[in-house]
């Protein structure tokens, strides 16, 4: 389950760093 949490965190980080135009 921890792996899924880390993936979600990475996805959120990328989305925040590169927001869709």
Explain the overall architecture.
The structure is a single chain. The protein has 21 residues and is mainly α. Helices cover 76% and strands 0% of the residues. It has one helix at 2-17. The protein starts with a helix and ends with a helix. The mean pLDDT is 75.
What's the end-to-end separation, in Å? 32 Å
The biggest sheet amounts to: none
In percent terms, what proportion of residues is strand?
Answer: under 5%
Structural class: mainly alpha
Overall residue-averaged pLDDT value: 75
Per DSSP, the total helix count is 1
Strand element count: 0
| Envelope shape | rod-shaped
Helix share bin: over 70%
Low-pLDDT segments, ≥5 res: none
List the secondary-structure elements in sequence, H or E. Answer: H
Radius of gyration: 10 Å
Q: How would you summarize the topology of this molecule?
A:
Elements: H1 2-17
Structure described in brief:
With 21 residues, the protein is mainly alpha-helical. 76% of the residues lie in helices and 0% in strands.
Which features would summarize this protein structure in a list?
mainly alpha, 21 residues, 76% helix, rod-shaped, single chain
């Amino acid at each position: 389950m921890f792996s899924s949490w880390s993936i979600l965190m990475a996805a959120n980080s990328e989305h925040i760093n590169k927001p869709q135009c």
